[in-house]
Amino acid sequence: MASQPVAARLNQMPLTRWHKRIAVIVGISLFFDLFDIYLSGVLGTVLTGAFHIPKSEQALLLSSAFLGMFIGSIGFNALADRVGRKAAFLGILSTYSVFTFIAAFSPNAAFLIVFRFLAGLGIGALLPLCDTYLSEIFPAHNRGRIMAWTYTLEFCATPVEGFLARALVNTHFLMAGWRWMFVIGSIGAIIVWSLQRQLPESPRWLESVGRRQEAERILARFLEEAPQEPRVERAGSEAVEPKRVPLGTLFTPTYAKRTVMLWIFQILQTFGYYGFGTLVPLVLASKGLTITTSLTYAAVSFIGYPIGSLLSVPIVERIERKWIVVGSAFCMAAFGILFGMASQPALIMLFGFLYTLSSNIFSNGYHIFQAEIYPTSVRATAVGTAYSLSRLMSGLMPFILLPVLHAHGATAMFSVVAGAMVLLMIDVAALGPKTTGRSLEEVNERVIVQEQGPNIGM
Predict the structure, then answer these.
(1) How far is 104 from 179, CA to CA, in rounded Å?
(2) How many domains are contained in the chain?
(3) In this structure, what is the dihedral angle of CA atoms 211, 243, 265, 96, given to the nearest 10 degrees?
(4) Which of 138, 168, 225, 401 has its CA 20 to 30 A from that of 451?
């Protein structure tokens, strides 16, 4: 066993108690990250009223954090490939906890916009880095399932945030209730920072940069908690050891196809996923609902996020990841149009719930998928760069969708969203590789050896 690459032994290992602790810590980290991502959207109508923001400036408020996320996703994830996953984690949390806390005390809209942008530098980097880290830590045979459980913890943030906003927006204890939402997000990030100090560095990353002894020590700790002997994988499936490869590898024949697929995907998925979560309070306001009522309907709709994530757990290892993405994108397109058309309270909440449920089967499928299709030494950079395009589009999205909403209504807006989902389905179906049940090395490093020879990276 000791002569095998560290990555091979990670794949042969059963789940241990330490794996489960890592899943919980990362899940809690993502809980507060998602809480912060949706702050401006959930509080959109409240902040508009508090600072007397005209409709022409609503898009800037909603997009400021996403523009920060675009920069942060590239910068911090590139750093993670150079200095390690753990160091990048701690830098990300420090950044967004400080700036989110300062944003809570914004005296005007301009101040809030600036500090939401600065907080976004950290917020946007965490999710793709977690995708990378989790894919490298968990064994191939249940990587998707345990990652889906982790994301389920994350998505509990959306209904919690919705109901908290519903409870706090009309209160005033020392300061306006909406300000407490920002404080809660900041305090949560500080708690997570202390938890993440317990995380091990990724053994795969350590092995890829030549720090084999450190990787062996971490692997030994996993083995101490293993409930059984490591499982035996298919003969020869793990023979390739992760090594450093140049960033240009992403544009070799095999990886260029994957890179183009993921970049197109990230541009389009923003309309479906964040188009709903960020704009739904404004969509409901356009239907003539009050702030309190719209927050109530949004909170009920947001219950679909954790339920959808939970429903993905039993299917992510049974259905090929790319087809999970395609099928759930189709459901989002259909339920989005029905949500836009609905006028009765029961139908608004039903279709909103079904939309968020579908969107989190979609989200879990693609977050697992995108971290599986690149080599270890450039994985964080590749995933972070692709994901940054979704943050850029999230920043531009209000400028695209809000004018449609204001001019033509919710049904027209969700028709635009549905069109983006159809293009996304074609993209993933045509260009996406198969990854379910396969080791990261089988999907990636073996391809590099076949294309460039066995001495690549040496």
Answers:
(1) 5
(2) 1
(3) 20
(4) 138
Burial state string for 131-168 with b = 16 or more CB within 10 A and e = fewer than 16: bbbbbbbbbbbbbbbbbbbbbbbbbbbbbbbbbbbbeb
Mean pLDDT calculated for residue range 255-270? 93
Output b/e per residue, 182-209; b: 16+ Cβ within 10 A.
Answer: bebbbebbeebbeebeebbbbbbbbbbb
pTM metric for this prediction: 0.77
Phi, psi of 173 (to 5 degrees): -120, 105
The single residue listed with the structure tokens 């999970």 is 324
Residue 233 in any domain: the answer is no
* Spatial contact of 262 and 6, defined as CB atoms under 8 Å apart: no
Does the residue 235 lie in any domain?
no
pLDDT (0 to 100) of residue 233: 47
Structure-derived torsion over alpha carbons of residues 371, 375, 381, 384, reported in degrees to the nearest 10: -10
Does the residue 1 lie in any domain?
no
pLDDT score recorded for residue 34: 79
CA dist 437 → 58, 223, 319, 434 (Å):
44, 22, 10, 9
Identify the pLDDT of residue 109. 78
Check pLDDT > 50 for residue 456: no
Q: What is the CATH number of the domain that holds 46?
A: 1.20.1250.20
Q: In which band, very low, low, confident or very high, does the pLDDT at 266 lie, cut at 50, 70 and 90?
A: very high
Q: Which residue has the higher pLDDT, 238 or 168?
A: 168
pLDDT of residue 45: 61
Paired with 176 in beta bridges are 172
Q: Which helix (H) or strand (E) holds 173?
A: strand 172-173
Per residue, what are the HEC states of 116-137?
A: HHHHHHHHHHHHHHHHHHHHHH
Residues 141 and 277: beta-carbon distance below 8 Å: no
Boundaries of domain holding 257: 6-228+240-452
**pLDDT digits 0-9 by tens, 310-358:** 899 889 888 999 999 999 999 999 999 998 888 888 888 889 889 989 9
The pLDDT value recorded for residue 242 is 57
